Amino acid sequence: PPHEAVAVLFAQEVTTCSTLLPLLKLLATAAASLLNLTPLHMALTIVKRRSVGAASPVPLTMVALNGAVWSVYGVVLRNWVPVVAANLFGVCTGLTGLTAYRAFADGRDCELAGQLLTFFFALMLTVLGLSRDALVDPQGFPASKKALGTFCVGVTVALFASPLVTLRDVLKSRSTASMNFGMTVASLACSGLWLSFGACIGDTFVWAPNVAGLALSLVQLFLFAKFSHHHSGRRPSESPPPTVVSSPLSRVSPRHKENGSGGMRSSPARSPASEV
Questions:
Q1: Which of 144, 190, 248, 249 is at a distance of 20 to 30 A from 33, taking alpha carbons?
Q2: CA nearest 134: which of 198, 66, 89, 78?
Q3: Exposed, middle or buried, 90 (CB in 10 Å: 0-12/13-18/19+)?
Q4: What is the pTM of this model?
């Protein structure tokens, strides 16, 4: 009968998930760690160049925020590995990258990085306050757990979309200099593996945002394939430095200059009578 065939198929899928679950835990943790390492790479680049270039602080903030909210959700689930372990690392690296960005940014960029830091801590205090009951007794407060999971979904989608915050500049300049290729590749691997892990444990809050993450990562890869990646470090809105064009007179030898005029010394006029 059809219902027996469905039951057999479901049992096979459960068995497969149970077999693959340890491997998926390991791979999902590794992929999340790879994604969470990208802020450290950006921070080292910023410190080395002593400039933020065309980079945006928004992806760095979202790495930290995503790690923080999922760490809280992992505590509610009592899922220490991979949920809590992988995401706590992201909090540290994201804040490190954002701090380095603020240290070497100028003007509006420095102000924006400071505002994002304030936003991060204010939001996390709010999340912890609203989730305190679920943290103590997850089974007794399912509504708080569901609300936290829904919020985590939104933050994860925002994380995967954050590199596209400079999309207007990318399309205007036809360059992906303001985007991070390593973060895009890591996001693709992370979303694919966490999608599989969430499906295996049957948690919609885990797999659902990673469907969007997979799609957004593919969009970013398309932009990298379509537009060349210039490393000028200059935003499209910034005008290039003026070109200094030297005139032939500026290359006159010093022995041709007289009285600081910068011109060539002219010979005195000779009349025909003086040649007689």
A1: 144
A2: 78
A3: buried
A4: 0.72
